[in-house]
Amino acid sequence: MKLKKGQAWGTDLTMGFLIFSMGIFIFFIYAINYTSESKENFEIMFYEGENIAQSILSEGSPENWNEANVIQIGILSDEKINETKLELFYNFTQTNYSQTKTIFDSSYDYYFFLDNNFTINSVEVDGIGKPGVNSESINATNLIKITKLTIYKEKPVTAYLYIWQPF
Q: What's the whole-model pTM score?
């Protein structure tokens, strides 16, 4: 009488194929959802960036705001950058950056700058935003750049806002 070893190979093959198929199916579901999740995250970041840029390039609220009474941060007066408000914004981010993010209603980090550096308290400044960052040193995997045109010292300038996810 012969012993027949290995006759259960059909069952092993079927189970292996089912497990492999489930793995492929889960991978595709994850890949599809990951792509739409990334797109949704990009859209949220862009929307928040536009809101922050719009707020900064407004008169703010109240019109003559300061750190104690600010509702909306804005640096314009008569549709031109007001150097006093620009300085207030800079000082506010230096002393309480997280509060500015709360006012902007954003969980993302930001950095605002112009074509050219500007002077605050006789010091040349690259931009305003997250302390310790400048327009050249932002290291982020997801970064949005918003560009707007405005007037500074009676000349047209381009204003930039970088917004990114904190690590």
A: 0.77
Token representation of residue 75: 């640096």
Distances from the Cα of 13 to the Cα of 2, 21, 125, 142, angstroms: 24, 12, 68, 44
Nearest of 47, 96, 54, 98 to residue 73 by alpha carbon: 54
For residue 83, being part of any structural domain is answered with yes
Tally of domains within the chain: 1
Neighbour tally for 60: CB within 10 Å:
23
Encode pLDDT of 148-164 as tens digits.
Answer: 999 999 999 999 999 99
Residue 12 domain-assigned?
no
Which residue segment(s) compose the domain that 89 sits in? 25-164
**Residue 60 domain flag:** yes
Alpha helices in the chain (DSSP H): 9-56, 83-103
